[in-house]
Design goal:
Length: 47
C-alpha cells in the first residue's frame, strides 16, 4: 500500500504496527471513496 509505512523494535512489534497502519490506511481510503485493488505487504529486516 503506497504511503502505508510502519516499524517496530522487534519483529512482533513491527507486525502489530503494520496491521494497525494498514487498518488506518484502509479506513482513510474508504472515507475518501477509494478502494484498494490489491494489497501486498513487504517485510524488511533491519540490521
Amino acid at each position: 500500500m503506497p504511503g502505508c509505512i510502519s516499524q517496530g523494535k522487534t519483529l512482533e512489534e513491527a507486525r502489530a504496527n503494520i496491521r494497525e497502519a494498514v487498518d488506518l490506511c484502509l479506513e482513510g481510503m474508504k472515507e475518501e471513496g477509494w478502494s484498494p485493488k490489491k494489497v501486498q505487504i513487504e517485510f524488511l529486516n533491519g540490521v
